[in-house]
Structure formats: C-alpha cells, structure tokens
Amino acid sequence: MNPPSVARSAASPTRIARFALLAVVLALLTACASAPRRSASATESALANEPARAPDGQAAAANDVLFRAMALVGTPYHWGGNTPAGGFDCSGLVGYIYRNATGMQLPRTSGEMADMGEKIRGMTALVSGDLVFFGNHGRISHVGVYVGKGRFVHAPNSGGTVRLDDIDGPYWRDHFEYGRRVLD
C-alpha cells in the first residue's frame, strides 16, 4: 500500500510544468509590456497597466491559447498558410492556435471569424484569448489574438513573421474594429 504522498506525486510533474509555462508566458508579457511607448494617450496607458485577464470560467483555455500564440512568435508569414512548417497568414495563425489549444474549429477567413462569438466594442473590455479584428469602416481585413496588457499576436504581412504588437499603436488603434470573445 502506497502512502498518500506517493499517489499525489504522479500529478505533480504535470502541474509543475503547467505553472512553469504560465510563469514564462507572464514573464514574456511583462517584458514586452515594459517596452518604451510613444506618447501614450489615456487609453494606451490604461491598456498597458491592465492586468492580464481571462474570460470568466475559461482561465485554463485562455492560458492554453496564450501559450500556443506566444510559442509561434517568429514563425514566417505565408499567404494562405496555416501550419508552423508552412508559415501563417493572419486567419491561418488564429485558426491553428484555437484548433490546437482548445479543439475549436474556426472559419478559415478573418471575415468569417468576425461573425463568431460575443462582440467586444472597446479595447479596454478585451480579455486574454479574445480575437481582435482590424479593417476600414467595418470591412474586416485582419485578425489576431489578444494576449493582455494591450498586446496581441498576429501574422502581419508578406516578408514578416508572427509577432507581438501593441493594439493601441498608431496603425492598429486607427484600424481596430472590435473584438470577439469565442471562449465561453
């Protein structure tokens, strides 16, 4: 008969690994959030100082999405791409993250993704794991995954790589349409 401490030790390595991975992601977010910012507006300051939050009851799923998203930073952009080996376009990246982190099958295009889940109008209402959409006058042309503290992961353009950007930077702030909460 094994003592109770031996039975618990089988789950401990998994828990320890998960907490260690969470600590690494939080450290990366903290490091990225401390980058110098251009003349911050009230909204920009509020976003950078907001704690990373997850949707109610979905902290584990949001963490899985964040881990997957952060792990793909640096992957090459490839139009139509939807795998790390082949590269990613914006919607291919988001679909891959959600499929592998949560098992969710998202539509293939950013325009189709923009019709899913609860619409989030303001940047300050975003939580980690929300999809963020950009475009011009309601026409969606780009999607990324909000990671918290005013930052999002996306595959921006040809010749580039998957990267972490400020959602309230000059270009992204001016083209932000809304967010969508697909984790419920």
Total of DSSP H or I helical runs spanning 4+ residues: 7
Q: Termini separation (Å)?
A: 42 Å
Percent strand: 15-25%
Task: Give the rounded overall mean pLDDT.
Answer: 80
Write out the strand line-up for the largest beta sheet, numbering strands in chain order: 3-8-4-5-6-7
Radius of gyration: 17 Å
How would you describe this protein?
The protein has 184 residues and is an alpha+beta fold. 39% of the residues lie in helices and 20% in strands. The protein has seven helices and eight strands; from the N terminus they run ααααββααβββββαβ. It has helices at residues 4-9, 12-33, 42-49, 59-71, 90-102, 110-113, 170-175, and strands spanning 82-83, 87-88, 118-120, 131-136, 139-148, 151-154, 163-166, 176-181. The strands form two sheets. A six-stranded antiparallel sheet has the order 3-8-4-5-6-7. Strands 1-2 form a two-stranded antiparallel ribbon. A hairpin with an 8-residue loop joins strand 6 (151-154) and strand 7 (163-166). Helix 4 crosses helix 5.
Which key terms come to mind for this protein?
184 residues, alpha+beta, two-stranded antiparallel ribbon, 8 strands, disordered N terminus
